[in-house]
Design goal:
alpha/beta
Length: about 270
Amino acid sequence: MSDSDTPAEGPTRLNTGVAHNARVWNYWIGGKDNYEIDQRVGEHVAGMFPVIREVARADRDFLGRAVRFLAGERGVRQFLDIGTGLPTVDNTHEIAQRVAPDARIVYVDNDPLVLIHARTLLTSTREGVTDYIDADVHDPEAIVQRAAATLDFERPVAVMMLGILNFILDTEDAREVVRRVMAAVPSGSFLVLTHPTFDADLGGEGNVPAMEFWNENATPPITARSRADVAAFFEGLDLLDPGLVPCSQWRPDSESPAVVPQFGAVAVKP
């Protein structure tokens, strides 16, 4: 961990009176780093959209499979995890460094509770490096500039954007963020992305009222997108097999994984 971010910044911004995505997500996957308000809102959303807990677990499992694949089969040694969320079991650096102890990982988030826990929980192997920067996804240039203190942007980087672009409500703004981050990494880099959908063929229609409730009672506001809109984030990149699929069905460990209304894909920059 670097000392570039002071943990004193975090508590001054911490608002425990309003549910926050990082903490509610933590609650859904069985974590302990959440408050009563997060639990109440999380339970209400789960009552409206019961599959949300499956989505949370599927998204987390996708992370593990994607990182193992990239570190193991593709030889990736650098990961930029934007919107990391609260640390839990098998974070990106733990998975990557289990495969490649010399892997270098930079986490990016701007939730003060994530910052507090990241300072104490995100350790590294002796051979590798793990860092955390307190930054906003809406400012990709700042993310890249600060990540360059740890990552070599002349070498391939796996850019992780799991469940983060859904907090950029304007689709064109979200596409621009992806374009700007991927423009900063060299050929042979990867984009790893998950995103909720309202597409009915994946059971996503329930996302609409659940997200309306969320936006009235929690922060930050969220949106789901269609397959076409999510596919557009990969413009100029080459999708790896099996393409854009429910994240539970991307190179699954089981033969017949459940379908969840959360797209997942991995693409390489040619």
